[in-house]
């Protein structure tokens, strides 16, 4: 058994641990205040940014799997927060848009999301945040280059 691997210092583990810590805090807040899961919030946010987006596009942009995206879309549609429209380019898919209720929800959640971001990252300088963001993007690129199937 390799003795050099110490999980606490293994960067993929640290990245996952920190990501889960932040996601759990965000999830608790979204659930308590708005009755949303993280996948549901991601769909609302992506649809707000790109009205007329397909579930497949959401999966690609968010790195969520098809089943997670589908379940979130069904839950949001059942609550009357999103609408499905025919996709004239690809009749097998539908374009998603926020309903009026979905738009109101987004307008309530977005400021809270930014407030939570400030609470977590506000203790870092602009330069540190820029460096961190650049590093995350470089990690994304390295993973995608190493495994194009990701």
TrEMBL record:
InterPro entries recorded: HTH_MarR-typ (IPR000835), Metal_resp_HTH_trans_reg (IPR052067), Tscrpt_reg_MarR-type_CS (IPR023187), WH-like_DNA-bd_sf (IPR036388), WH_DNA-bd_sf (IPR036390)
Record bears the keyword DNA-binding: yes
One family name in Pfam for this protein: MarR
Keywords for this protein: DNA-binding, Transcription, Transcription regulation
Domain HTH marR-type: 8-141
Single annotated GO MF: DNA binding
Domain of life of the native organism: Bacteria
Name under which the protein is recorded: MarR family transcriptional regulator
């Amino acid at each position: 058994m390799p003795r050099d691997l110490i999980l606490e210092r293994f960067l993929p583990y640290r990245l996952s641990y920190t990501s889960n810590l932040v996601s759990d805090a965000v999830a608790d807040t979204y659930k308590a205040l708005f009755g949303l899961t993280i996948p549901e919030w991601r769909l609302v946010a992506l649809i707000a940014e790109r009205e007329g987006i397909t579930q497949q596009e959401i999966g690609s942009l968010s790195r969520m799997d098809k089943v997670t995206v589908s379940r979130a879309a069904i839950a949001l549609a059942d609550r009357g927060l999103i609408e499905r429209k025919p996709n004239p380019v690809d009749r097998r898919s539908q374009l998603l848009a926020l309903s009026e209720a979905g738009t109101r929800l987004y307008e309530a959640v977005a400021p809270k999301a930014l407030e939570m971001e400030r609470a977590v990252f506000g203790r870092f300088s602009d330069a540190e945040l820029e460096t961190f963001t650049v590093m995350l993007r470089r990690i994304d690129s390295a993973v995608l280059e190493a495994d194009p199937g990701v």
